[in-house]
TrEMBL record:
It comes from the Bacteria. InterPro entries: Atu4866-like_sf (IPR038646), Uncharacterised_Atu4866 (IPR020955). This is Agrobacterium tumefaciens protein Atu4866. It comes from Agrilutibacter niabensis. Pfam families: Atu4866 (PF11512).
Length: 79
């Protein structure tokens, strides 16, 4: 079970992109009105995140000072 401090919802300032990092090492990404636009697994090592969606596409990002930087996007934690 993945219990790192980054589990939760991460959202762009405009709310268009939403990454939900689940405790079980899975993620669910919503885009605009489309829920579950992308789903897959993720791993976190230190402050670095690696994504693998269910089609095999990979991406990564970094957490810096409470902000997730991913693929040119800036996502903030939504409490």
């Amino acid at each position: 079970m993945n219990t790192h401090p980054y589990v939760g919802l991460w959202v762009t300032a405009d709310g268009h992109i939403r990454h939900e990092l689940l405790q079980n090492g899975r993620y669910d990404e919503a885009r605009g009105r489309k829920t579950s636009a992308y789903q897959g697994s993720y791993t976190v090592t230190g402050d670095h995140i690696e994504y693998v969606d269910d089609t095999g596409f990979t991406a990564d990002g970094d957490f810096v000072d409470g902000i997730l930087y991913h693929a040119g996007m800036v996502l903030h934690r939504q409490w």
